[in-house]
Design brief:
Blueprint lengths: L5 E9 L6 E9 L5 E6 L10 H9 L2 E6 L23 H17 L5 E6 L1 H13 L5 E5 L8 H9 L4 H4 L4 H15 L10 H9 L9 H14 L13 E7 L8 H14 L3 E7 L12 H14 L1
Parallel strand pairs: 3-4, 3-5, 5-6, 6-7, 7-8
Antiparallel strand pairs: 1-2, 2-4
Helix pairs in contact: 2-3, 3-8, 4-8
Length: 307
């Protein structure tokens, strides 16, 4: 299906949680649709950064759909609300994600649907998975945050910023405590994202990237992290769901290779039997923006075709 004509559409979808207007983009190939790939993007970025990846998938017959998470890109009520989530309930992000699933499912009820998630988006995807794993034919967790023993302390600190005035302020201290180690390891801010300097420069030039979360955003991030490793309310209805964990070996977000493989073990213990892993030597956090991203693209395609 390579070379198929691609149709791009943008639309708005009200969140089922609070009516927040979510910005959505679709890419659809001409002719038959092999499958649907829904994307859950990462922290402090936006849906347009995935257009090259979506184009590749669409050229191979996959309809792609992505929305800006609340507090990101076009899913804000005011430009100054970047990094503010309008809620303290992290499950809202998962319900937003499922609302996009329901929308695209209504249009294509019989087509298999796959979820590709990155970084913070994998935390949202794992929250989604707790209730909606039957909706999926495959799941990719790319650059996934792993278990962090300090998340309880982070939540306690973030709890001190609750209340309307403090919640809307930039969480500079929380941001520094959370990501300072990644900055120090690579010497310069944002170099941990990719080993490709041009991709890092593009990120830094983008006004919709790299913003500091509000205290409210950091609180939601920590709650998502905590929920991702809480098995108590997980309803595994699709134990044969194919899952791919992928990351760069130099990605500070995975913590370590040991923690990366512990995430596979955690998912296995929950009941998911088909969990595969792939570590890319020398690559960093944003695999889709590395020098050799074409190989990553092909690996994702191969996974989708094998589901």
């Amino acid at each position: 299906m390579g070379g198929a004509k691609i149709t791009r559409k943008t639309l708005r979808l009200p969140s089922p949680v609070d009516g927040l207007s979510l910005a959505v983009e679709k890419m659809e190939p001409a002719g038959g649709i092999r499958g649907i790939v829904q994307i859950s993007h990462g922290m402090a970025e936006h849906k347009e950064r995935y257009e090259d990846f979506m184009t590749f998938l669409a050229e191979n017959g996959y309809l792609c759909v992505i929305h800006d998470h609340r507090g990101h890109g076009g899913s804000v009520r005011r430009p100054e609300d970047l990094g503010y989530f309008y809620t303290e309930d992290p499950a809202a992000l998962a319900e937003d994600l499922y609302a996009v699933t329901a929308m695209i499912r209504a249009e294509h009820p019989q087509v298999p649907l796959y979820l590709f998630s990155h970084s913070m988006g994998t935390l949202v995807a794992r929250s989604y998975l707790k209730r909606h794993d039957r909706a999926l034919s495959g799941l990719v967790l790319c650059g996934p945050p792993t278990r962090n023993p300090l998340v309880g302390l982070a939540l306690a600190l973030a709890g001190l910023t609750r209340g309307k005035a403090l919640a809307a302020r930039r969480g500079r201290l929380l941001n520094r405590l959370t990501f300072g180690g990644a900055y120090r390891r690579f010497g310069r801010e944002n170099q941990w994202l990719s080993s490709d300097p041009e991709q890092v420069a593009r990120y830094q030039r983008d006004p919709l990237c790299g913003f500091i979360f509000t205290n409210n955003g950091m609180l939601n991030l920590y709650r998502l992290q905590q929920a991702a490793f809480d098995p108590a309310d997980w309803q595994v209805a699709n134990p044969e769901l194919p899952v791919l964990l992928m990351a760069g070996s130099d990605d500070p977000v995975i913590g370590s290779e040991t923690r990366f493989f512990e995430l596979k073990d955690f998912l296995n213990r929950l009941g998911y039997r088909q969990v595969d892993t792939k570590l890319y030597p020398g690559l960093r956090h944003e695999l889709l923006n590395e020098r050799d991203r074409s190989a990553v693209y092909r690996d994702v395609l191969q996974f989708l075709q094998g589901c």
